[in-house]
Every structure is written in structure tokens, then in C-alpha cells.
């Protein structure tokens, strides 16, 4: 059966919503032993390699700036991140992970590695790589459409 563009779009959206729920449930279980939430892990993951402003984290994670700000403030209170001056923007401070934040993420690594191994065993490494590439392509296409819509407005 040949599906229309609209049917494909709908199926992709519904499948993505389901995947999001599945990943969030798994991530909650993985994060629980380290004492952090999925939302905290998302923000920490976005700044593992370099500090970013709140707006940059929001763009990276596809969530609102306001929700990132709330989480970043909690993480700062807990000592998992710190705010640093941003040479590129005086008012938009950089959010940087601290050693305590790195420790929390490292505590997730063993369970994370085990889950990744189970998933690769289920679908195969090459197929999993293909799926990741396809999801990345789909996300980039949606970003481009959003940019096009912004340019037109």
C-alpha cells in the first residue's frame, strides 16, 4: 500500500510521540539511581562538553527557554551547574556543568551502557545506526521547515 505524504507525516509524528514516551520512561529509570531527574539529565547532557546559554540549551534539546531556565536554576542551587559570564552576550550567562554534575551523569553510565547494548542486540548495530541517521535527517528537515516559515513571516 502506498501512503500519502500526509499519512507518512502523521505516522512519523505518532511514532515520534510514542518513542518520546518510551525514551522518557527508560531515561527516568536510568537517572533515578544517580539522584537526578530526566529534565536535569537533559540539561546536563547539553552542556557536558561546553557551556551554553539557556537559549542554546533550549535549541539543542528542543524545549522551551523557560523550562530550561527553571531546571538550570535548580541545578545551580544543587551545585550541578554554575553560571558564568558570557563573552558573546553580557546578559545571557553561560550554564556550565560542575564536577558534581559530571559525577551525577557518570553514575548513569553503567545502566546507560547496558541499555544501549540491549537495544543494539535487539535491532542490530548497522540498523540502529541507520535509524539514528534517519531520525537526524528528519529532525534537520523539520528545523529547515521551521527556518523557512520564520523567514517568510
Q: What value does the average pLDDT take?
A: 94
Q: Mind summarizing the main beta sheet?
A: 3 strands, antiparallel
Query: Mind telling me the CATH class?
Result: Mainly Alpha
Give the ordered list of helices and strands: HHEHHEEHH
% residues in beta strands: 5-15%
Shape descriptor: globular
CATH superfamily: Winged helix-like DNA-binding domain superfamily/Winged helix DNA-binding domain
The helix count comes to: 6
And the CATH topology?
A: Arc Repressor Mutant, subunit A
**Derived structural class:** mainly alpha
Task: State the helical fraction.
Answer: over 70%
Level-2 CATH architecture? Orthogonal Bundle
How big is the Rg?
Answer: 18 Å
- With strands numbered from the N-terminus, the spatial order across the biggest sheet is 1-3-2
- The tally of strands reads 3
Work out the oligomeric state of the chains in this entry.
single chain
Low-confidence stretches: none
How many discrete structural domains? 1
Measure the end-to-end span. Answer: 37 Å
Task: Offer a quick outline of the entry.
This protein has 153 residues and is mainly alpha-helical.
What would you say this structure looks like, in words?
The chain is mainly alpha-helical. The chain has one domain (17-152): Orthogonal Bundle (Arc Repressor Mutant, subunit A), CATH 1.10.10.10. 73% of the residues lie in helices and 7% in strands. The protein has six helices and three strands, in the order H-H-E-H-H-E-E-H-H. It has helices at 5-31, 38-46, 54-61, 65-78, 99-123, 125-152; strands at residues 52-53, 81-84, 94-97. Strands 1-3-2 form a three-stranded antiparallel β-sheet. It starts with a helix and ends with a helix. The mean pLDDT is 94. GO terms for molecular function: DNA-binding transcription factor activity. Pfam families: MarR_2. Residues 1-140 form the HTH marR-type domain. One of its GO terms (biological process) is response to stress. This is MarR family transcriptional regulator.
Amino acid at each position: 500500500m502506498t501512503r500519502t505524504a500526509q499519512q507518512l507525516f502523521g505516522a512519523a509524528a505518532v511514532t515520534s510521540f510514542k518513542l518520546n514516551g518510551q525514551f522518557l520512561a527508560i531515561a527516568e529509570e536510568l537517572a533515578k539511581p544517580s539522584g537526578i531527574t530526566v529534565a536535569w539529565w537533559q540539561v546536563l547532557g547539553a552542556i557536558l562538553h561546553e557551556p551554553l546559554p539557556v537559549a542554546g540549551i533550549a535549541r539543542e534539546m528542543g524545549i522551551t527557554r523557560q523550562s530550561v531556565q527553571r531546571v538550570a536554576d535548580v541545578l545551580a542551587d544543587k551545585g550541578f551547574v554554575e553560571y558564568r559570564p558570557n563573552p558573546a552576550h553580557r546578559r545571557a550567562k553561560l550554564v556550565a556543568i560542575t564536577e558534581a554534575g559530571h559525577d551525577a551523569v557518570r553514575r548513569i553510565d553503567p545502566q546507560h551502557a547496558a541499555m544501549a547494548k540491549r537495544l543494539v542486540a535487539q535491532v542490530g548495530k548497522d540498523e540502529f545506526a541507520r535509524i539514528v541517521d534517519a531520525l537526524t535527517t528528519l529532525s534537520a528537515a523539520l528545523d529547515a521547515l521551521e527556518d523557512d516559515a520564520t523567514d517568510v513571516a
